[in-house]
Amino acid sequence: MNNVTEIKSSNRIIKCYDVPAENIDPKTVSSFGEEWKAFHGFKEKDLKRIGDMYFDIVTTDMLHEQSSVIDIGCGSGRFIKYLGNRFKNMVGLDPSKAIYAADELIGKNEKVELVMASTDNIPFPDGHFDFGYSLGVLHHIPDTQKALIDCVRKLRSGGYFLLYLYYSLDNRPFYFKIFYWISNLIRLLVCRLPTGLKKGVCAFLAVILYMPFILVCRFLRWIGVPERIRRYIPLQVYERQSFYVIRNDSLDRFGTPLEQRFSRKQIKDMMEKAGLTEIVFSEKLPYWHAVGKKI
Ligand SMILES: C[S@@+](CC[C@H](N)C(=O)[O-])C[C@H]1O[C@@H](n2cnc3c(N)ncnc32)[C@H](O)[C@@H]1O
Fold it and tell me: Within this chain, do residues 158 and 56 fall inside the same structural domain, yes or no?
């Protein structure tokens, strides 16, 4: 772990670990580096809304002011910004150039350290952290199970890990799977485009694919149709999100070369295999996110 370069960014020194990583898809990482350069200007309102959705199952027993925290695959740093400086210290780890966008978004915060590294070379001793999370990351890594084991190893016994992985639509009606199948074909084409064109195409897809569903959901919400019914409409999760977040997610969804999907059962099995117990799944969108305690 000695190939480290210290790069002075706007708000802090970022340690970049040039250690060979195997469990990584370089094209996906490079694509995220470009993505977060374009999307790191989240508004407080957006950050709160998104953060509340993922941290709904995290209690103050799991995460509190004495916690030492790591965000694995922090991207633009939006969840670190959401959590603020309520904790003892926080590390944001990402192998892509997104880490510079994270520095900008987080701004001055002495409790936050940023490192450029991958899950297979997290530059901290095993058992170092009290709380770790990885949201929307490990499904973009070739061996998700191994990545999860590598992350959980960095937690102390009794610490907690919050995980979000793309779901395999296992709790959805068949037509969701048809939409997914079509969108996946589009992704396989779009992710090969050069960066500038990819951004433009994804913004266009946000308008023509996302917005029709989202506008229907917004209208139904406005006339009082309950959430338990609106939930049957694809992309309902975005009905309260800003167009900025929707455009960002479109680029995330269609611009990424490697993505994998898992059922709730597969995720539970992987978490257990990584040494987590007392696993709690959120019953709310986005699916699936779950928290577990390190044995
Ligand atoms: C969809 S983004 C999610 C970013 C952030 N968690 C969020 O939701 O805002 C996925 C992130 O995973 C990172 N990533 C990809 N491969 C990784 C690896 N092997 N180790 C750690 N992070 C990785 C990417 O660079 C990217 O920033």
Answer: yes
